Structures are given as C-alpha cells and as structure tokens.
Amino acid sequence: MRLKTLALLTLTLLAVGCSSNDTKELEPAELPKFNAEVQLKKEWSRSIGDGQGETYNRLTPVVYGDQIYAADVTGLVVSMDRLTGKVNWKQDLEVPISGAVGAGYGLVLVGTLRGEVLALDVSTGEERWRSQVSSEVLAAPAVNGDVVLVQTQDDRLIALDIDTGNQRWSYESSPAVLTLRGTGAPLLTNQLAVAGLSSGKVIALDTQRGLPVWEQRVAIPQGRSELERVVDIDGGLLLSGGTLYVATYQGRLAALDLESGRILWQRDASTSSGVALGYGSVYLSQASGTVEGVDERSTTVLWSNDALARRQLSGPSVFSSYVAVGDMEGYLHLLSQVDGRFVARTRIDSAGMRAHPVVEGDWLYAYGNGGKLVALTIRRQD
C-alpha cells in the first residue's frame, strides 16, 4: 500500500475518531432542517460511467466553450453540450484515469494512474498524443497555449509541448514522508508555472525553462508524529488578479503576491479541498466540516457554519449569491455568502460527492462519486 493511501486512511480515522478505545467514534452530523429560500432546478442529468471509483479520486469536470467534459475512473471521457446535456462524443481510453479534466487551446487533457498524460481533440475526442511522466497524475493538467503542465504524485512538475507531448522541462522537489492522497491542480500563466506541494510550499517556475522564480512556505509541519506534520496543499490554487490564494491541511489559509510570492496575509486553517472567492470574501471547507467566510482584506472570519461537521465536504464554489458544497452522502448544500445560513439543498448522488461543484454563469454542475453529473440552475421561491 502506498504511503499516500496509508496516510489518507489513517487521517480519515482521526477525523472521525476517538482518543481511546473507550471513546465512541463521532458520527457525521445529521442534516439540519431549514426553510428553503431558493430552489435548485435540475436542467439535465447524465451518467458518466463508474464515476470517481474507490480510490478517492476527485475527477472534476471542466467547462470549455459551450461544452462540458467529464471523465470516469475507468477511462471514459464524455463531451456534452453544457446547456442541454446532449452528448457530442464519447471516448473510452481503457486506462485508469486519476487526474481530470483539463481543457484549453483545442485539447482535452487527462492523467492516469500509470503516469500517462493524454491529449484529446476537443471537437472529436480523438487522441492527439500520449506522454509518459514520472508517476501517477492525480490532478487535472493545465495548459497555456505553449505547454501542458502536469503535477505528479511525487511532487514533480513537468512541462510538455502542447503540439507533440514531448517533455520541455522537469522540476523535482522532495515530497513529504507522509501525505494525503492527491495533489492540487497546477496553475499556468504565460510566464509562470505555479504549484502547491506536499511540503506546504508553493513554487513558481519560469514556463520556458522550468527555473525557480520564487518559493514560499505557507505551512510549517508541527507535531511529533509524521501524521501530525502533514501539511499538504491538495486543493489547488486560486488566482484573482495578481493575488494567489492557497490553503493547506493542518496549516494555513494565505494570500500571496503572484509576481513575488510575498505573503500578503495568512491565518490558521486546515483543508484539503481548496478555496473559493466572491463578494470580497474567501470561502473554505475546513477538514472538520465547518464552512467559513473570511474577509480577504482583514482576514477576519465573517461567518462560520459548523452544522456539516464530519460530513467530508467537497471544496466550495461560488454560485450566484451563494456558496455551494457537496458532502459524503451526495447532498449539495447552498449557503448564503452574507452570513452562511442554509438556503437550499438537493441530493446529487447517494455514493457521495468529492469533486467541487463547477460553476459557469448561471449554471452549476455537480458530479457525484457514483458517476451522476447534474446541471442545476436557481429558481427563486414564490
């Protein structure tokens, strides 16, 4: 069993666990009752093969143009009209997909457990190229029109030529001894390749040669055991203007200057699912199940909702005036951006929901662990 899987299993037990053999494990919080203020209307629903599978994948769909692209763990990739759900094409790659889905510049990109990166034609689904990298790809590749950037399980960043898949450069770093299973998706601009590492650091590299531009430690490992010292950055990075937002497990939520890596502000936090931004606030799902809204200027917690404790929440997404999160039982929750109160709830997939919701305009796309992809819009209550 790989160390990443071992760490994940142990940390999961700790999250719900007990301090002694005589202490009963805490159950996930029961769903609170509330008066719905808006209605989530299902526009269409599709089944995407076997969904996330049993290996704790987060195969998040991606919207590109007027299409939405989704993949399942067995290698099925599907292109659909994002407004109607009509299937444009399907491609069965017959390889175990673990990093999905990236899209841009005419390509749909996925990574595999075998350490491969596959590029498909965005219009037809035909394979354009396939490239072998150093180890499993557990997050969606990024693309900027010149290179495809991949982050592997062993904390390497690899740039591939967008046309051929040939390796341009590779950057190696030393992964932590124990980590959560997964990596955050890297981020690409025209000049910088940016990624969060299992060591709690963020690294920015020159896109042309892969040389370091800056490095910033966001979280410092603390504690006596290796489990206590896990500070992975697994939820990906969020870029808004020139500010980069990042959060770590058992560490911190921070805002960094993109050009220099300088920390603009930081506060204690613990999450493996990333952050969202809206209305001047940063939103995050803490590992405990608490959802928080933090003022992006003062770092003050504006509101905190702990009613979903231990429900293994997905990362948050901003949807209209609300914050959307999924949970382990497949419920999608809408919370007010103003004060964190519940305003709507619907069940997406009884197998649960790990991938964060995808928002495009007035539409939200929720992808359940069992493979159910649902398109939703908001209808106001009469």
From TrEMBL:
<keyword id="KW-0998">Cell outer membrane</keyword>
<keyword id="KW-0732">Signal</keyword>
<comment type="similarity">
    <text>Belongs to the BamB family.</text>
</comment>
<dbReference type="InterPro" id="IPR002372">
    <property type="entry name" value="PQQ_rpt_dom"/>
</dbReference>
<feature type="domain" description="Pyrrolo-quinoline quinone repeat">
    <location>
        <begin position="75"/>
        <end position="305"/>
    </location>
</feature>
<protein>
    <recommendedName>
        <fullName>Outer membrane protein assembly factor BamB</fullName>
    </recommendedName>
</protein>
<feature type="signal peptide">
    <location>
        <begin position="1"/>
        <end position="20"/>
    </location>
</feature>
<dbReference type="Pfam" id="PF13360">
    <property type="entry name" value="PQQ_2"/>
</dbReference>
<keyword id="KW-0449">Lipoprotein</keyword>
<dbReference type="InterPro" id="IPR018391">
    <property type="entry name" value="PQQ_b-propeller_rpt"/>
</dbReference>
<dbReference type="InterPro" id="IPR011047">
    <property type="entry name" value="Quinoprotein_ADH-like_sf"/>
</dbReference>
<keyword id="KW-0564">Palmitate</keyword>
<dbReference type="InterPro" id="IPR015943">
    <property type="entry name" value="WD40/YVTN_repeat-like_dom_sf"/>
</dbReference>
<keyword id="KW-0472">Membrane</keyword>
<comment type="function">
    <text>Part of the outer membrane protein assembly complex, which is involved in assembly and insertion of beta-barrel proteins into the outer membrane.</text>
</comment>
<comment type="subunit">
    <text>Part of the Bam complex.</text>
</comment>
<dbReference type="InterPro" id="IPR017687">
    <property type="entry name" value="BamB"/>
</dbReference>
